[in-house]
Design brief:
By secondary structure, this protein is α+β, with helices and mostly antiparallel strands. It is built from five helices and eleven strands; from the N terminus they run βββαββαββαβαββαβ. It has two domains: 85 residues, Alpha-Beta Plaits; 77 residues, RRM (RNA recognition motif) domain (Alpha-Beta Plaits).
């Protein structure tokens, strides 16, 4: 941990594991099925938390940006022969092709702070009132043009409280939503935390 002295006050700044050297963090997926959604993409991408999922439905293409350059590189190395996601009726494998983005991606100040705070694209809330429908929760999460990937519902143990994980296509949208919940008196009795990508 580094220490910065300013006006006789000591400010403790976290030392992050990632240097400010721009590195490749983007994966490009091509030959996606026409029905592909950000949830489908999340189901086939693995190995680390993502900053962003951007989907071009018309081009059957997506851009995936990892938070960690090393995780991005490892995913690429493990899947450069493509990702099998099913089979045709004739038994032929259905494959999504994986490429490493050519451009490097700077980890700016805001994102570095979010990484240090443990922010992810997923916000877990416990307990959630039973009378909120899934559609109502999705609509609430999408306010302010936030892009919601989906909701995952469950029960906490041992008290069987309703648990909801809100997943967004961008970490920035999750951070905004987390802040909205934390500042809303209706949600002050809830535990609100970030969780890793599935």
């Amino acid at each position: 941990m580094s220490i910065l002295c300013c006006h006789r006050f000591l400010l403790y700044l976290p030392v992050l594991p990632h240097p400010l050297v721009p590195q490749k963090r983007t994966i490009i997926l091509t030959d996606l099925p026409e029905y592909a959604t950000s949830s489908f993409i999340s189901s086939i991408v693995y190995g680390g938390n993502l900053e962003q999922i951007r989907l071009d439905r018309f081009g059957c293409k997506a851009w995936i940006r990892f938070l960690d350059p090393a995780a991005c590189q490892k995913f690429y190395e493990n899947s450069d022969n493509g990702l099998v996601y099913g089979k045709e009726n004739n038994g032929k494998e259905k494959i999504v092709w994986v490429d490493l983005g050519k451009d490097v991606n700077v980890i700016g100040g805001n994102l570095r702070e979010q990484i240090a705070r443990g922010c992810t694209r997923s916000v877990k809330v416990v307990p959630v009132e039973e009378d909120f429908t899934k559609m109502a929760l999705e609509t609430f999460a999408a306010r302010g043009r936030r892009s919601v990937e989906g909701l995952e519902e469950g029960r906490s143990s041992p008290n069987n409280k309703r648990t909801v994980i809100f997943r967004f296509t961008e970490i920035e949208h999750a951070v905004q939503f987390h802040g909205t919940l934390k500042s809303d008196a209706d949600w002050e009795q809830c535990n609100i935390n970030y969780v890793d990508d599935p």
